[in-house]
Design a protein that fits this description.
It is flat, with a radius of gyration of 30 Å. With 451 residues, it is α/β, with parallel strands linked by helices. The chain has 20 helices and 17 strands. Adenosine-5'-triphosphate binds next to helix 9 and helix 17. It comes from Siminovitchia acidinfaciens.
């Protein structure tokens, strides 16, 4: 320090400076070029309920995905390389005005990001805000109310021994929820075993489940084999794809669930077990019952507690946190540092995700591998950029006039079925309302026209 300066100025060491910063009422974070926290002052405890040591070294994506703050200022600041400000909410309910300033190196790359955040409103307690503490979620992302309610319900159910049936489309998280129920149950220190009923042939499934005695069948291990049910004693057995097991096995399974006992293949003696069963399926069990493919009594045994996981398109609030969750996961796995653009996030949020979270996970993995530093809209498969167009099947024997008539009819019927209003049909198909009304009368005679 220049000795000729003001005589009252004292020399401040880095340590003193750090402790002085803890007196600040504003929160201060410093992130490195990998978006990892390298400095934070003591205000973090007030805003997030986390100590400095809980935050140092963590990635901004990781914290955003765990809902410590929403939305996140960081992706944009690293991409745009210019100062930004926004209002963020924290997990404790604090509302912050956050400003982030990037510090660039000689190659114009972001070296550090310094953020300061000032509280706008008083914060509430975690419970009041209905935020779920990270530790309780066991890696499950739960942002939408639909999934938060499901998890709260699962937590209550976990404390009982009741059989649970989890239904939902493929990839909605039935497997991860089953494991979660086990992890928050009193059986958490005992085994959790999964049996994929669709993947194992019937004969094998029986011996896998119940085990067999020595010499039970040709090719069997000479000393016999302990079955999964016995191995899972006092724990949880997850019967995945339960809709795919044969009627014969359904009868045997029903007995185990009812009586908590079974006889190994080739054996005489009953074995007692204490098991919690969780079953899952993406098939419509009631339809299978109607078709005689699933036993009604087993259905009621399994369905003591019924949880239905909604498809991802019905809980769009989960899409962005899940994207960051997977981005984080695959960036670590492939030792990359990929970012995602806002446009890309919007396109992914608007997509219908027929394969749900599994499809999203697979796509993010692929994008992390193949895209440049910033994952952008042009990296997405074509389906994400195109609006879905209805395809019309034409009868090949039609004349030109006949084909035109058929296309007209189909367009009018589809539009009217969707909107139920001649005004909206007119808007969508760019015709006058009177033309729309006339065509609806002509082609949708059985349906009532709303003006
Ligand atoms: N809420 C969530 N948070 C984080 N990851 C999730 C969540 N839900 C699902 N996943 C992940 O998505 C993938 C698919 O989930 P899971 O296998 O549990 O689905 P599923 O419904 O059992 O699928 P299927 O019917 O095809 O067996 C898994 O990798 C899982 O970890």
């Amino acid at each position: 320090m220049d000795q000729t300066n003001n005589a009252n100025e004292i020399e401040i060491t880095a340590e003193t400076l750090k402790s002085l910063l803890d007196y600040s009422s504003d929160e201060i974070f410093i992130f490195n070029n990998k978006r990892q926290i390298i400095y934070v002052n003591g205000v973090c405890e007030r805003n997030y309920g986390l100590k400095k040591e809980d935050l140092l070294g963590r990635y901004s994506n990781d914290l955003f995905e765990k809902e410590y703050w929403t939305p996140s200022i960081y992706p944009e600041v690293y991409i745009k390389k210019e100062p930004l400000s926004m209002i963020q909410k924290t997990n404790t309910g604090a509302e912050l005005l956050t400003s982030a300033i990037p510090v660039l190196n000689d190659d114009n790359e972001v070296e550090l990001v310094i953020t300061t955040a000032r509280e706008l409103k008083n914060y509430k307690t975690i419970n009041e805000n209905n935020a779920m503490p990270e530790k309780e979620l066991h890696g499950m992302i739960a942002h939408s109310n639909k999934i938060k309610n499901t998890i709260t319900f699962a937590q209550k159910v976990a404390k009982t021994n009741s059989t649970v049936l989890i239904q939902g489309e493929s990839g909605t998280g039935k497997g991860i929820l089953a494991r979660y129920i086990h992890q928050v149950s009193n059986r958490k220190d005992k085994p959790f075993l999964t049996i994929n009923c669709a993947a194992i042939p019937e004969k094998l499934l029986e011996s896998e489940l119940f085990g067999y005695t020595k010499g039970a069948f040709t090719g069997a291990a000479p000393s016999g084999k302990t079955g999964l049910l016995e191995a899972a004693n006092n724990g949880t057995v997850f019967l995945d794809e339960i809709g795919d097991i044969s009627l014969v096995l359904q009868a045997k399974l029903l007995q185990v669930i009812q009586d908590k006992e079974f006889i190994p293949v080739g054996g005489q003696e009953k074995k007692k077990v204490n098991i919690r069963f969780i079953a899952a399926t993406n098939r419509d069990l009631e339809k299978l019952i109607e078709n005689g493919e699933f036993r009604e009594d087993l259905y009621y045994r399994l369905n003591v507690i019924d949880i239905t996981l909604p498809p991802l398109r019905e809980r769009k609030e989960d899409i962005t946190p899940l994207i960051y969750h997977f981005l984080n996961k695959f960036n670590k796995e492939y030792e990359t540092n990929k970012l995602i653009s806002q446009k890309c996030l919007t396109a992914l949020t608007n997509y219908a995700w027929p394969g749900n979270i599994r499809q999203l996970e697979n796509l993010i993995e692929k994008l992390v591998i193949v895209s440049d530093t910033i994952i952008d809209i042009h990296d997405l498969p074509e389906t994400f950029n195109k609006k879905k167009k209805a395809s019309i099947q034409l009868d090949s024997s039609l004349t030109l006039d006949g084909a035109v008539e058929q296309v007209k009819q189909q367009l009018i019927r589809d539009s009217f079925q969707k909107h139920k209003s001649s005004r909206k049909v007119a808007e969508e198909l760019q015709v006058s309302q009177s033309t729309a009304t006339r065509l609806i009368r002509k082609y949708c005679g059985e349906l009532e026209v709303e003006q």
